Amino acid sequence: MFGILVRDRRERFISLAEARTDKALSAIRLIGNLSNRSNYEFTDAEVSKIIRALENEVRAVKARFADASSGRDRSFRLTD
């Protein structure tokens, strides 16, 4: 019985981790598409803010895996 529960939790983790990671990578690629200056106008400061937000969130994910008690939900905004 116990082995079945552990396996189910493991399988659920793998399934969700793969799906969510694929979704996050696709979203990051879409952000990269914004670099096309013939379609978009942006400042270096805006680009830095986007990169900083992504890097901060990756650091937060690392911290959550290191200490599963941490959590945060924030939306990204170019203008505050």
UniProtKB/TrEMBL annotation:
It comes from the Bacteria. This is Uncharacterized protein. It comes from Microbacterium pygmaeum. The lineage of its organism: Bacteria, Bacillati, Actinomycetota, Actinomycetes, Micrococcales.
